[in-house]
Write a structure and sequence with these properties.
156 residues, alpha/beta, Rossmann fold, four-stranded parallel β-sheet, 6 helices, 42% helix, globular, binds 4-nitrophenyl phosphate
Length: 156
């Protein structure tokens, strides 16, 4: 599986999602390719936000080597699934789609754990460290579900 996580800046939510899912895939012996990107270009080349790095490190995952990049239309060709964090990311990604097949790859990540509710992973950038802890909890739960569904199907 090739999975792309997308948020606005690619320095908070999507690199956290990338790190969490990468670790879970590795621990389950799955050789998946997981990456992340931002719809905006302001932080291209930067490491994740220090608060995101800190909360991830407290959970045993090092995302400090990651570098932000911007989402491009060619990503539709490289990935099987594109998970976005909120509805604004969704619209920005869909705007770059070229065909129905591209659009079908895109979904709000929390629709996995909260089907059809179109819930957002809240943007923690203007928040405090506890907002990053909350984002970690949401993403950890949904990434575990991605792994469990792959391994066991939708049985539970
Ligand atoms: P992210 O958070 O989308 O989770 O990476 C943000 C990071 C930077 C900005 C907005 C959101 N920004 O406006 O610079």
């Amino acid at each position: 599986m090739n999975i792309l996580m997308v948020c606005l800046g690619n320095i908070c939510r999507s690199p956290m999602a990338e790190g969490i899912l990468s670790q879970k895939a590795r621990l389950n012996g799955l050789s998946w390719h997981i990456d992340s990107a931002g719809t905006g270009g302001w932080h291209v080349g930067e490491a994740p936000d220090e608060r995101a790095i800190k909360v991830m490190k407290q959970n045993g995952i090092d995302i400090s080597p990651l570098k932000a990049r911007q989402f491009v239309a060619a990503d539709f060709d490289k990935f099987d699934k594109i998970y976005v964090m909120d509805s604004s990311n969704y619209l920005d990604v869909i705007r770059l789609s070229r065909q129905a097949e591209d659009k079908e790859k895109v979904d709000l990540i929390l629709n996995i754990t909260y089907p059809g509710m179109n819930k957002a992973v809240p943007d923690p950038y203007y928040g405090v460290i506890n907002d990053y802890v909350q984002v970690f909890g949401l993403l950890n739960e949904v990434c575990q579900r991605i792994i469990d569904t792959h391994i066991h199907g939708n049985k539970r």
